[in-house]
Amino acid sequence: MTNRNFAFYALLASGSALALSTPAAAQMTKPAPDASAPAPDATDPQDAPPEIVVTGSRTITNGNNSPTPVTVVTTDSLQNVRPASLTDSLLVLPVFAGSRGLSSNPTATGTTGGGNGSAAQLNLRNIGAQRNLVLMDGRRVPPTSFTNIVDADVIPQLLVKRVDLVTGGVSAVYGSDAVSGVVNFITDTTFTGFKAQAQGGVSSRSDDGSHEFGLAWGVKIGSNSHFEISYEFRDDDGIGRRSDREWFNRSTVGGNGTTVPYFLIPNSTLPANPFGGRITCGAACALNGQYFAANGVLSPFVNGTTYTGTTTQSGGPGGYYDTSLKSALNMHQVYGRFDSDLSDNVHFYALASGTFKTNHFYGEDLLFSGLTLSKTNAFLSPTYQAQIPAATFTYGQFFNQNARLDEKADSRQLMGSIGFNGKLGGASWNVNYTRGESRLTTVLKNNLNYQKLSAALDAVVNGAGQTVCYASTQAATAAAYANCIPLNLFGPSAANPAAVGYIFDTTRSVSTTHQDDFNASVSGSLFSTWAGPVNVALSGEFRRQTFSQTSDGTPSMTADCTSLRYNCTTTGAGQPLLLNTFAPTAQISGNVWEVAGEVTVPLLKDVSFFRNLELTGAARYTKYNTVGGYATWKAGINWALDDDLRFRGTISRDIRAPTLYDLFAPTTASYSNYTDTKLGTSSFVPQFNSSNSSLTAEIGHTKTFGVVYKPHFIPGLSFAVDYYNINITNAIITLQGTSAQIQNGCNNSGVALYCSLIVRNSAGVVVNYVQKPINIAQIKTAGVDFEVNYANRLFGRPLSIRVLAAYQPHIRYIQPSVPTIDQGGVAFGANGITASPSWRITGSISYQFTDFLRVDILERWRNTLALSGDPTVTFAPGSGTIKPYSQTSINLSFNVNKRAEFFLNVQNLFDADPPAGNLTGSSGTPGQRNGFASSDDVVGRYYTAGFRVKF
């Protein structure tokens, strides 16, 4: 047993021993107390917390009576164990194992993350961030991207007091898209005084430096009004290269899983593309297969370890990618809120926020595969020219001379809301309007211009003895290429920096999403029975959303091949001008209106075996102008057997509609080195990403059943166990022709839909792949959530222990004519399908050693993972799994007085390295993506120090 695993089990053992040996008073931990009410003394856990209005219902006001599983975490408890951004801190919770963040394969060239793959996307139940809602104070947060997903960093984190997690379908209560649940950020709307916090951090390897600073101020204005404002700044350097971590060994997976079992290739390289460049000139050519180990000097190529079924090698002089491991972040955020009592029964509020966030990361180096060069190229030595029999030769190279794609995702996210609420008779009412605008500007530097590359590679000597571009010597194109600088590829550092700069363009695209949301609700008691009041809520909502995109680098832009002798194609659609493109989109829009009702009916109270029995129900009708109308509903039961034991359960029907981008986005293209499983070859070809106007809404059916036990004979201890079962039909998934599963469905079963995603020429060679969203899947998952809470005093000092565990053995994606993919207990997923450990456990313990010192310890663990969820593929012995992973963190807090606190935090205390692994079919892209399970820590031991003050 490793030291870090021992620490985890010791933590759990100590928690169990304390829970059994030390008497304590009762503590409600699910849900947590409302921080807006007078809080119990932090030094006295025996004070009973107040009841709260629970997220997940508009009619239930007692958190103990919620039939829906609700997990509540306070901001303080999260920041005490992981003093990062609030969204990063949330990722320690087991229910968020499939979420994205700064180290989630950062990219800005695809649709992942709505164009920003480093956005903070919270993914409940690991079935997609697009299937849960993000709320703030119970209201829908406007989407921050064209995928309708919210970048949770838009939340004003300094004023958030707790986060409520509803892990069950609640579309009937909160509206469409809440298939797997909601994440509700509850802000402190009554904050008065001043608080500030600042911190800085650095890894044990002296990189990934971070700085955070925040201020908040709140004040009462007269006797009826209140104003609060906050400002936050965050800066994170990120980690610019995957090779900056010694554990990252570029593991990829070779083979095809059938005739050649999949196997792991450590230190993967592509022998056809060394960094110095490799010549292919035929068997009769003495230079055939040699490469430039030094500038201008050829050397025999000495293979690394070779494998059957793939050209990828382990080691050797072949090339590889080295993309960013963690995105850099720079963010400013300002938030303000004003509210006032206009009368005894009418309350007004208005709020506004602006989040200005930039993620910066590096993508792929250039992979030159199959270039055609003239043997008389001016940079090639005459000695070598004489040994090449043909007029041209083929050349391959990983070009890494300051050539990585430089990606910047710059987002501006504005939100404003205005509303009224109050009382009318015995009823409560609310009217609200929210406007959101998100603008994502994607700037790509080092975006390859194929036309310039073609010109720069054709280097000749002019009449004056100067090395120039051939196209600049031709009358028809001399003016166009007057600034062309010839590019020397013959060596690992042979290129002139000016020539490198010439072949690249900087392109810019801007996508803008707007949402207007009008909603109103009224709730109250219709009448009372002997068991209590019958509460009813009615609500209505109208939303309108628009999306548009501009771009100065589009897929329709093609190269002009005039005077370009090599590497410029005029056949078919012609040579694309740019390697990475974004298509412009005229404004597209959609709207939806919803009406809903909810009721809570108490049936029994204070009789034998029924301390309380309630039934809840909700129904909603949703009408989209794009995909039609849908009904959703929910029913629940809450049965308190006595003060110790409670049972709860729900069933629901929920929906998620396709986004405007899914329906109407223009076709875009992206290039990479994709593997053709039919021929067993890899080639650098485009993938065309298209929309689908025929999509309809997904339908989800969810069942939950849970038990909450708070034994009176061990005050302060509580247990909660909840089972869930989610079945989504008509599910929208993105099919990719590059996927091994889709290729096998075409190659082995001849499914026409799958074959349409793989476009071949008359010789059977892949010309391009297609990616497209389709209502084709059924998604099924089931699991159990566990929660244990304990709060008491040990040696007269406050002690709290919390253990959260999630067991999710299956996440099945069922498609016709291909094997069912089960992503439960799997490390990687293709086609945007998230993978998740089947067991995830987070444990924390907090103890106040002295009046001035508190220690918090956090332990996270996940189980062994399979590399693939495809049951039909085979792996070579020892290659199909990733070992379990755990990490320990510790926080020391020093209270100078009740107003100031200093802290020192160490994340990943034992510097646990994530085990290596990768996606099947990844052998053609070593060092580009993945290499580790997404839930594992890639930074290593990390030190943070800071302070918090409050007046």
In short:
The protein is elongated, with a radius of gyration of 30 Å. The chain folds into two domains: 3-177 and 199-243 and 326-362 and 433-444 and 510-560 and 568-950, TonB-dependent receptor, beta-barrel domain (Maltoporin, Chain A, Beta Barrel); 267-320 and 366-399 and 450-502, no CATH class.
Describe this structure in words.
This protein is elongated. Helix content is 8%, strand content 48%. It folds into two domains: 3-177 and 199-243 and 326-362 and 433-444 and 510-560 and 568-950, Maltoporin, Chain A, CATH 2.40.170.20; 267-320 and 366-399 and 450-502, no CATH class. It has 951 residues and is mostly beta strands.
Provide the descriptors you would attach to this structure in a database record.
Maltoporin, Chain A, 48% strand, disordered N terminus, 5-stranded mixed beta sheet, 951 residues
